[in-house]
Amino acid sequence: MTQRQYQAHIYVTLRRSVLDPAGTAVESGLKNMGYDNVTGIRIGKYVELSICASDEQQARNQLDRICDELLANPVIENYRFELTEVATVQKAEVNS
Amino acid sequence: MTQRQYQAHIYVTLRRSVLDPAGTAVESGLKNMGYDNVTGIRIGKYVELSICASDEQQARNQLDRICDELLANPVIENYRFELTEVATVQKAEVNS
């Protein structure tokens, strides 16, 4: 059975309508350091992981569920991901 | 005086040699949820911001300093960023 290995880069960000206290804190910190040409700071999560699946669609479906169930809070966060195939893995058939 | 506005996407990740407790916790959480085909989870920061500068090199130099001084801990973290020009801004010359 052929399995494909994918590298995923996932970006979890707060929805635009949600206040970003961390981003606001960084922005005022930068202003105190003299960087007043920097605005609109939004801070989110960047997740890298490796996933094995039979094809890309299965990998995408699983990543959607993983993001919805664990990595992102759908009420206040958005997510998007990029998927890159990195290897093909031959797995021995298990005859039951 | 012409100033250019850039949108920056910054990725701050732990160095490979550094243990990632958050990533390890998410990995075991996923295994408990039945996702045992997901490995190598690394969690970092994803920062979006807007920066005004006279040209791209000046924007890059400032972002390097901002990452070194505030957004990333150079001892345990790496950073990289992508820069996209989004607007050109005409600023009135201030005659002193």
From TrEMBL, chains A, B:
It comes from Oxynema aestuarii AP17. Keywords: ATP-binding, Cytoplasm, Ligase, Nucleotide-binding, Purine biosynthesis. Part of the phosphoribosylformylglycinamidine synthase complex involved in the purines biosynthetic pathway. Catalyzes the ATP-dependent conversion of formylglycinamide ribonucleotide (FGAR) and glutamine to yield formylglycinamidine ribonucleotide (FGAM) and glutamate. The FGAM synthase complex is composed of three subunits. PurQ produces an ammonia molecule by converting glutamine to glutamate. PurL transfers the ammonia molecule to FGAR to form FGAM in an ATP-dependent manner. This is Phosphoribosylformylglycinamidine synthase subunit PurS. Pathway: Purine metabolism; IMP biosynthesis via de novo pathway; 5-amino-1-(5-phospho-D-ribosyl)imidazole from N(2)-formyl-N(1)-(5-phospho-D-ribosyl)glycinamide: step 1/2. GO terms for molecular function: ATP binding; phosphoribosylformylglycinamidine synthase activity. GO terms for cellular component: cytoplasm. Its EC number is 6.3.5.3. It comes from the Bacteria. Part of the FGAM synthase complex composed of 1 PurL, 1 PurQ and 2 PurS subunits. GO terms for biological process: 'de novo' IMP biosynthetic process. Pfam families: PurS. Belongs to the PurS family. HAMAP family: PurS. The lineage of its organism: Bacteria, Bacillati, Cyanobacteriota, Cyanophyceae, Oscillatoriophycideae. PANTHER family: PHOSPHORIBOSYLFORMYLGLYCINAMIDINE SYNTHASE SUBUNIT PURS. It catalyses: N(2)-formyl-N(1)-(5-phospho-beta-D-ribosyl)glycinamide + L-glutamine + ATP + H2O = 2-formamido-N(1)-(5-O-phospho-beta-D-ribosyl)acetamidine + L-glutamate + ADP + phosphate + H(+). InterPro entries: PurS (IPR003850), PurS-like_sf (IPR036604).
